[in-house]
Amino acid sequence: MKNNLLSYFFLILICLFGKTSAQTYQLTGNPVNTSGWDLVSSASINTDFIQLTQDIGDQYGAIKLQDPINLKYCDKWKVEFDFRIDGNGTAQYGRGDGFTFWYLANPPTGFVSGGGLGIPANASGLMVGFDIFNNSTEGQMSKIHVLYGTNNGLNNNIEYNNTAGSTFHSPDLNPTQPFVGSTYKHVEVNGETDPANTANWLIKIRIDGVLIVDQSFAPSGGAVGMATGYFGFSAATGGASARHSIKNAKIYIDKVPILTNTINPFVCVNPATGNGTVDLTSFQNQFVTNPANYTFSYFGPGGTPITNPSDYHYSTAATTITVVVKDPSSTLCDNGDGTIVLTPSPFAANDVTLTGCNNNNAGGAVFDLTSATLSSVPGSTAVFYNTMYDLNNHISPITNSSAFLSPAATIYAQVTTPQGCTDVAQITLALFPVVEVQEATLRACAIESSPSTGLFNLTTAPVTTQNGVVKEYYPSLTDALNGTNSIVTFNSYISPNGVVYIKVINGNGCYAIAKVNLIVIPQVFSNTLEDKIICMEDTTTLDAGPGFTAYEWSNGATTQTVSNIGVGTYWVKLKTGDCEVTQTVKVYASDQPVISSINISNTTVTVYATGGTAPYQYSTDGIKWQDSNEFNNIPRGDNHIYVKDAYDCNPIVISIVVPNIINVITPNGDGINDGIDYSALSGKQNLVFNVFDRYGALIHKADKTNRYRWDGTMAGRKVPTGSYWYSVSWDENDKKNTPITYAGWVLVKNRD
């Protein structure tokens, strides 16, 4: 009883829901969904409930599952439903008789008298009756009857079955649990294997949560060894009458879910032994996702337990193995629906072709022989040989089978299944067409800011004419072979003279590596274009020289030469082929000479110049020029001195004053030649007037206080008659503050 019931529940569960769920079959909805159920006799759908009988006499009604249930592996199960018994009854017998929930091997198919609660005579299985009519006293009652056996009581009445250990009759529950009324009562029937006797079921029955039945039941009569049965409900009224209704009927099951019911593995018979072996445990993960969570039992033909499933021997005949999956925690019921069907067939290995890449013309490809699909049998192994001679004699097997370097060739493999069957497979090693590449050279103009480098677009290197290829760029051959340090900026690669490598990969994943020479085209500058020095007021011509394909000057000119160029900085872009350089040229203003000082001695003027570019030329009128810096017989008063250097630029000019020279003074107070007076020069800068005696001693210093005069005295006393020397120096009021020095002598005649 127990095993068959659980198995069927689980089967229903998988079919209906496709996942583990406690609910397997039900009668719910409005109107009630009776798919998979059969209505018998007067049973009918009435909105959200099944009405088994009307409230009239001699009524019979039942509802049962259409398909039988195998309960072989059920450890626990549960059934819930709501029932209601109402109606007017009859004057003689009142209301009756009641209804039954059952699992029967031979369910009722037509009318059954009222005393059996809808259970026919000799019905075998589990029956739970809800009886409201006492056939002995013909009075009303509320009793539960349980029978786990065959209904053969008096008048086929379940109430009169009393097989020890297989039956139960509750006391009259009418005072506390009356079955008759307008409201529904909720029933739960739980069954599970009795640990003390696994042939028995522990049955618990609750009505509205109140435990009524809790005991172990042993199968008797036709229930012993019962394989399959039908679940259902039935009711009968007999001489009495009542309306019997049920709704919300649900059958619950917890059963180990399996992924598939039947596995058909490939198996073969070893010709040498006439049989084969298989590890049945190797298929566990095809039944459940986590085999370690379950235990497995295997049964051969006739239900014979297999004691060594990891090494099961079979012959040439087809064999079906039954697999029972059990939950060790007993949370889930056993599942015995799994089968392994062994149908031995001849084994033939597959001849295959492996195609590899002769990368970079290495002379062959590296083949992974283990990737060849030589057999569809899981767990098959292969040993590879270069020749059939080696295979037949089992000598010199290929040891590097996962990385076998070979040109195009044919090798052989001895393939062995887990069952020990063998066959020889031929492996053809073929080569994809090689990727054709050639060495290339790229030239790039020197980068002006870094003339030793050029900017290269590596994608323009003509290394192949094949279409549909992918290119990768590397700085070295080693990097190209290893696929490391790839050049990311291959469209704008800056490099000096050198080489790079391009890996060309075709659609088959094969590649060849091409060398690309990188040449930086040196900058070509003009050899004739040089800086120039000109006079500030002049212009000049700049010539970039011949040999360039294009010129572009900073002033917009596009000729080899440009004229009327004044002082400044200019550039010209010079194009040679596709390259262009920018050359800068400067036109400097020549340095003007500077008159550093002038010495005046009587009428002789000596000019000293610095700066500019020697030799200098000198002039007093800017027309007549001389090489000498000395001028004689310069008239007294204001004069001009002109100086120019070798560039013959506009001369510099300075104004000088040649003072009147007084050689004799007679300081006698007559107002004539009483002294030397240089107050006319007081507007000059840094004017100094000193008088010395013939020994060079300073005897007078003229300044603002004495108005740059000397009256032939020293410290207020007249100096002796004689000759005295004097010097006058000042800075001209020009932008250079040219220093002027004038020296002379004077005869002082003092009369006492």
Protein model, in words:
This protein is mainly β. Helices cover about 5% and strands about 45% of the residues. The protein is built from four helices and 55 strands. Strands 1, 3, 4, 7, 12, 13, 14 and 16 form an eight-stranded antiparallel sheet that branches. β33 (about 500-505) and β34 (about 510-520) form a beta hairpin. The termini are far apart. Pfam families: CHU_C, Lectin_leg-like. One of its GO terms (cellular component) is COPII-coated ER to Golgi transport vesicle.
Strand content: 35-45%
Number of strands: 55
The overall average pLDDT, rounded, is 88
Radius of gyration: 65 Å
Contiguous helical run count: 4
Domain L-type lectin-like: 33-154
Subcellular location: Membrane
InterPro entries: ConA-like_dom_sf, Intracellular_Lectin-GPT, Lectin_leg, T9SS_type_B
GO molecular function: D-mannose binding; hydrolase activity, hydrolyzing O-glycosyl compounds
